Amino acid sequence: xxxxxxxxxxxxxxxxxxxxxxxxxxxxxxxxxxxxxxxxxxxxxxxxxxxxxxxxxxxxxxxxxxxxxxxxxxxxxxxxxxxxxxxxxxxxxxxxxxxxxxxxxxxxxxxxxxxxxxxxxxxxxxxxxxxxxxxxxxxxxxxxxxxxxxxxxxxxxxxxxxxxxxxxxxxxxxxxxxxxxxxxxxxxxxxxxxxxxxxxxxxxxxxxxxxxxxxxxxxxxxxxxxxxxxxxxxxxxxxxxxxxxxxxxxxxxxxxxxxxxxxxxxxxxxxxxxxxxxxxxxxxxxxxxxxxxxxxxxxxxxxxxxxxxxxxxxxxx
Amino acid sequence: xxxxxxxxxxxxxxxxxxxxxxxxxxxxxxxxxxxxxxxxxxxxxxxxxxxxxxxxxxxxxxxxxxxxxxxxxxxxxxxxxxxxxxxxxxxxxxxxxxxxxxxxxxxxxxxxxxxxxxxxxxxxxxxxxxxxxxxxxxxxxxxxxxxxxxxxxxxxxxxxxxxxxxxxxxxxxxxxxxxxxxxxxxxxxxxxxxxxxxxxxxxxxxxxxxxxxxxxxxxxxxxxxxxxxxxxxxxxxxxxxxxxxxxxx
Lengths: 317, 249
Ligand SMILES: Cc1cc2nc3c(=O)[nH]c(=O)nc-3n(C[C@H](O)[C@H](O)[C@H](O)COP(=O)(O)OP(=O)(O)OC[C@H]3O[C@@H](n4cnc5c(N)ncnc54)[C@H](O)[C@@H]3O)c2cc1C
Ligand SMILES: Nc1ncnc2c1ncn2[C@@H]1O[C@H](COP(=O)(O)O)[C@@H](O)[C@H]1O
What we know:
By secondary structure, chain A is of the alpha/beta class. In chain A, 26% of the residues lie in helices and 28% in strands. In chain A, helix 1 links the parallel strand 1 and strand 2.
């Protein structure tokens, strides 16, 4: 049994999602190898070699892999699968993009966004926006899996695997990279933050998001999240959306402000350790999952909250 | 250019799914069913392409029960020209859906297939990518903008860090994200007109596709339940509870 984990990275840094996927791979059993596909990603390959439980790192470097487009990854990974029984990737927008192509090429059903490994062929995954958990057994010879990283603890970093260079796929592909607009922020990453402060439609404007949600997040060293309504209205960019079709988060503390708590939003944050909701409607569904609910007008509550936090040692920024 | 739009009949997005007591699945008896919201966005995009003169024909396809005709009629009422129902009462997994769609693409010869990024029942997010791979076509998934640019299709994609734009050599597969457009409501006259538009009925066997599932369901269970907590009276009480009781500050 051998499992291939596809590393998540941006050519410069290895995302901690990778160590979480390795830990899911370890639960399946057998040798675990990591593939680092990128351009100028040698440092990432070195970092991957330190993840505990990894046998070896395969490193493919080349122009075709710079942006990890699905077609290039498919061309690289499909032939490698001759030597593996399973392939695992994070259920990120990269993983969700290429993994089904690999599955289709191998004629297997992908098992999407698993939250638990019950046996080498049996997995648990949420369906219906997390309102049901389905346990499935795959009869396919090879398993192609994406992993919901919030539910797996990261593997340790005491490993010392070897790094083997392999050839990048021969180009060209029928898709090409044109450009990207990445939102730059000094705040912690939504997926990794210990605290998330999220705002909803009630914020009414991007100015209010900047004036209220962001300073509160900075005071707590938190990441900023949002409901779909807030993103659709342009208060904040799409990569902040939490929910069934946005990002899945499970921080120690999730503070939902002016968010009603639609099932699609709950699907993305219900696994947070402690949930706080601030909403002026005492019947808002968000209160059904909140550990601490405050019925209040956010325009009054946020400044007060900033003052109270300052008193207990969280200086305003 | 012909555009093919696969649409799925699913539980309405406003309905909370309930697990059956015997854990064999989700109870869909007497539950409101609708077109998957991402598929509505796909239909809207295709219809706008036709209205803008970029597309000349929009064909909607659904693989599912007899009743999926309702969703196909909705697509026709929104402006699609024709529909194909591939009728089956059996559950059809994304891989088999992709294989049936591939066969339809080979018959119909569209230049673009626009699918939803995800069906809100199985939350698989894989059919479009599988179809693209089976056809050997490029893909632009999670699209928030689609532009025809000569022989290429330019797609802006919603990715984890922000937005990415890719150029695809047509023919291509696109999957829709929420912000691509806002689907229209079909008007009453259009709903009436849709009743007369052609709707072909086929079966998976007509395409020679074996739809035997690859995944077998062991059980479908309720998610771990989260109990509602307490209401606090003031911001000061909230901060004090977070600090001393919850220990998260
Ligand atoms: C296919 C599909 C996918 C979706 N995916 C997602 C997803 O991934 N994530 C997501 O979030 N949503 C998603 N949605 C949308 C979801 O159904 C809801 O529409 C959305 O979450 C609502 O956002 P909201 O809570 O900010 O807005 P609203 O529902 O409008 O709630 C605003 C809340 O603010 C409160 N409020 C108003 N003024 C104040 C004030 N001054 N002080 C305090 N409280 C106030 C109100 O009482 C209300 O509860 C999806 C929908 C569909 C159809
Ligand atoms: N049974 C089906 N009939 C038609 N289209 C489908 C079907 N299943 C999936 N699709 C298409 O594939 C998209 C993604 O579905 P999924 O991969 O199941 O999340 C949907 O939004 C539809 O466009």
